[in-house]
Records
---
Amino acid sequence: YTLVDILRAILLSLEAMIEDPELQVNGFVLIIDWSNFTFKQASKLTPSMLRLAIEGLQ
């Protein structure tokens, strides 16, 4: 998967989760396992992609 695919999946999941009133009150912790993210995938990252990822996950 590309980083864009991964970010889309994360953002879709977050959008669904923020609809839950219990999560709105208590919050949640997001843990992402990047252990299978390869150097080949990382080499395709651009500064704008990284900025988008960081801003989206903040």
Note: Helices lie at 3-17, 21-26, 39-42, 47-57.
---
Amino acid sequence: MNLSSMWKRALYLVLALLLASSLITGGMLSAVLADDGPPTPPHRFYGTVTCAGQPVAGATVQAYVGGSPAESTTTDSEGRYGYDPVFLVTGTTGQEVTFTVGGVPAAESATYQSGGLTNLDLTIAGTPPTVTTGTATSVTQTSATLNGNLTSLGTASSVQVYFEWGTSTSYGNTTTTQSKTSTGSFSATVSGLNCGTTYHFRAVAVGVGTATGSDVTFTTLACDGGGGGALEITTTCPLPGGRLNQPYSVTLQATGGTPPYTWSLASGSLPRGLTLSA
């Protein structure tokens, strides 16, 4: 006895009980038994997505069953899809399943099988986007605005752009993704930074493939007095002696903070005849 016939027998039994109950209470019951089996399990797909041999990260994988849009998922940072989360597609056994990646048709297809598990690596032809990293602006002790420029969408109709940033070229942080359908500049503000600290960042664009701009650095403004990164003054102490009727000067040097520097006397006064040039 197969599952379908067992399911039908159980339904017939339920209907018979309901009919008997209806007759006992003097009511009427009419029912139509549809010849549909129990729900069928979906088909799971998983694999990698590449363009020109390179993994395609952060792209939308859209499934089509029999030519109609079905479920979709997104590739991870290594260009994989269907691993976490799993990618389950619903349809009818025997239908053709095709895919697009970022709106670009994949070369591969499959045949739908209820309950199937298919490792299907997808490849797409096309040109990745191009992006450049600009300079940071509006830099304060704790925030900065990062700037980039999407110079080409490649063959994608829409490109996702964002910035990676951190205190090293490992970055470790990303800004919120922005969607762009045309070339042009974009920016994002980062906050919660440490004063007197150097940060790295670069622009990233994801379309048919992934592109990154060059690494750029900026340094947040120096901390207030008493904080890390305050200015350090180095000079000769005591000052060297002068000679009668000879010009006299001493150069002060500073490290830390953000140039240009401005010099002033915090307390006391200079010997007669000496001045401080800021």
Note: The longest strand covers residues 143-152.
